[in-house]
Amino acid sequence: xxxxxxxxxxxxxxxxxxxxxxxxxxxxxxxxxxxxxxxxxxxxxxxxxxxxxxxxxxxxxxxxxxxxxxxxxxxxxxxxxxxxxxxxxxxxxxxxxxxxxxxxxxxxxxxxxxxxxxxxxxxxxxxxxxxxxxxxxxxxxxxxxxxxxxxxxxxxxxxxxxxxxxxxxxxxxxxxxxxxxxxxxxxxxxxxxxxxxxxxxxxxxxxxxxxxxxxxxxxxxxxxxxxxxxxxxxxxxxxxxxxxxxxxxxxxxxxxxxxxxxxxxxxxxxxxxxxxxxxxxxxxxxxxxxxxxxxxxxxxxxxxxxxxxxxxxxxxxxxxxxxxxxxxxxxxxxxxxxxxxxxxxxxxxxxxxxxxxxxxxxxxxxxxxxxxxxxxxxxxxxxxxxxxxxxxxxxxxxxxxxxxxxxxxxxxxxxxxxxxxxxxxxxxxxxxxxxxxxxxxxxxxxxxxxxxxxxxxxxxxxxxxxxxxxxxxxxxxxxxxxxxxxxxxxxxxxxxxxxxxxxxxxxxxxxxxxxxxxxxxxxxxxxxxxxxxxxxxxxxxxxxxxxxxxxxxxxxxxxxxxxxxxxxxxxxxxxxxxxxxxxxxxxxxxxxxxxxxxxxxxxxxxxxxxxxxxxxxxxxxxxxxxxxxxxxxxxxxxxxxxxxxxxxxxxxxxxxxxxxxxxxxxxxxxxxxxxxxxxxxxxxxxxxxxxxxxxxxxxxxxxxxxxxxxxxxxxxxxxxxxxxxxxxxxxxxxxxxxxxxxxxxxxxxxxxxxxxxxxxxxxxxxxxxxxxxxxxxxxxxxxxxxxxxxxxxxxxxxxxxxxxxxxxxxxxxxxxxxxxxxxxxxxxxxxxxxxxxxxxxxxxxxxxxxxxxxxxxxxxxxxxxxxxxxxxxxxxxxxxxxxxxxxxxxxxxxxxxxxxxxxxxxxxxxxxxxxxxxxxxxxxxxxxxxxxxxxxxxxxxxxxxxxxxxxxxxxxxxxxxxxxxxxxx
Length: 969
Known about the structure:
By secondary structure, this protein is an alpha/beta fold. The protein is built from 45 helices and 15 strands. Helix 18 runs parallel beside helix 21 and helix 25 (555-564) crosses helix 27.
């Protein structure tokens, strides 16, 4: 089960059939197809980052609206509310998308994969009864076609893959049941399955076999001819060689067609004669090499990677002469478990390589010098039977003999810890039949390009895998008793297998030390690497393992990696990294690519990178020891200058008519321009978490001039609805503003916080806004006085203190006349228009609204013009002139569709007014369409109360004449 919040309902997700969500066993309704598609898109990649672009494709298809990002964000908010995930533990926000965090037993597809893997393990141990029981349990999870009923091109691929897994499980189940003689029981089920999958040769082979063993030879032959006819008609091909041999056996009169017997432990097969004892000879025959180190006892997770490796051994690849030797390159960061996975998988499959298993540690990363190709070839040749004295000199001669010895054989070769593609090239066999598995911290892109290697990248464990690993080390009872501490341990170890093994191993070795005690040690950022590096074995010390990668870097790469430890945010762009390290962007891009190839950082999108918390701590430790305090100060100033300047550049494009206290921030050496308003908005929303972190970082390091300038560019948080971020950043910036001793900065920050508090209807808003107004009046700052009076008017209006609201709005209007380009005057006129509409003063509402719309139009503020025209339409409705109201409402909707902001304000509200006008003029169908669109906007934003009110109107077909609208001027 998953618990979205402590003490909250236990939530289960089901995708093996129609999408369903259950909380404590009760069905949770998910209204809205968009929300369902979004949730399905996350659940088909559980515990993995799903990029925003993929989610947009899942929700909207090939033609997403301009506001797709905003609508996805709104739908995520609505899902969180529906799933009681206010703390965002279930659906986690990442900079480039979202991740849904679910435990294995909270998602049926994960349960299916786990049970299927367990059944394979039992079958490999010849325990077919348990294997059949377990695979039956896995198949029982299916309730119908995967994601049945969800129409989305983007979901068809994941759904098809799930269906393929189901089909594979059905074939396995039938095969194992035939192995134990259940042909009578399975024949009826197979008949039904081939009706559902008429072109599946595997299921037909099982059915034909079962029929033949039941003595139903004629039916078996008929099943073969029916499949053969279908394949020719549908695909233009005949049955495969295996089915044709089966057909020939039945024609020859075999009532029980032969099947490949399972190998014994000694490699022989039942029915085969045991090999005759060998006679002594002058030269002893060397044993088949089996060089794998021991497999780890508590191997956990990695199901997808094991499946991908298994797929490389498909029947078509197993046959000699089928093509080249199969090469798989397994790469990942230090401590991520590459060797563990490679050895575990190799042990699982080495019985399929009768001519031996070769293994070597190439020492590409670690103490001492790397192993040379010549040294490894010497060892391999001797293992393959070449007398030591007969091993030729020189790498080329040894490599040629090695390929000769490997030709015609089936050998599994594991090359662990390579430092480059060139490190292993001489060790690759030249003919098919062999499998080579290479592990490295390098991306080994050279092998992919020149040897057609199959690249698999290993990331840290998923949350559920990491928890299972800890439980396997300290014991399930202790893990359950300290579950909260185990969760914290998993997070502090960044889900890195090596770190988890060190920390959990210490708890297991010293029962007197609780997991909570270890968590307390790891919680200190300055000593976390010390706590994970106490082991005398260098391979079991996180700092040492990281150092082996760092030591391979060139000086420029090492300089950049160290400086990345000073970056305050969760990820960073190439341009931000360039600013941090005082580099031209193109040079930074090259160096970042090298760090990514070394798996010291991880690319998350084009020109965007991150690294996990332990590598971040290592980078910060390195810069603390290797660089001076002056270097640190220069780097912080540089990156904060870049964020401040770039944020204000974007803010001016998003809010071209707004007045800001910061007018000319210092430009960095390499400014980052934005092509247009849409690109500026995209940058602000993408960098939101980094900007927030940069502000906190500036305050923590008393770089107050950056803090007060940054907060002045955070108006975009209002458009994204990030009110809590607006409050916390303003509260933090208030410290910096007061330390500067500049009342205008203090007033500006109080105004930002007061606006957010007012939107959330919190009583603390009025004192902040009142103090901001007083400070602005003391300094004579007209802009801040107008803004404070405007917000005070909104607060008192919401509280129905309409007389006070009228006074504040009139004061704001008086101050705004002749000030700036006219935006504040337009705002004040619009606020007065709304207030008069509330009071029923329809002609006054029309007058002020018309003035506001004209001023907005003059300065190019289409969002504001849409809101103003909606209020004018509302006024005309109040007078009974619905034709005029219709004209203004249509124009408001037209402008609202171009908004990049909150469509609940610039589009949904005008749509409801337009609906009322249409209704009164007898256009009922169009009116209902407007209401439905408005309701969908509210639903996407998570404003369920507003959406429900509109749905009620739709159901009753009643549209209020003049409903009050939210007007956040």
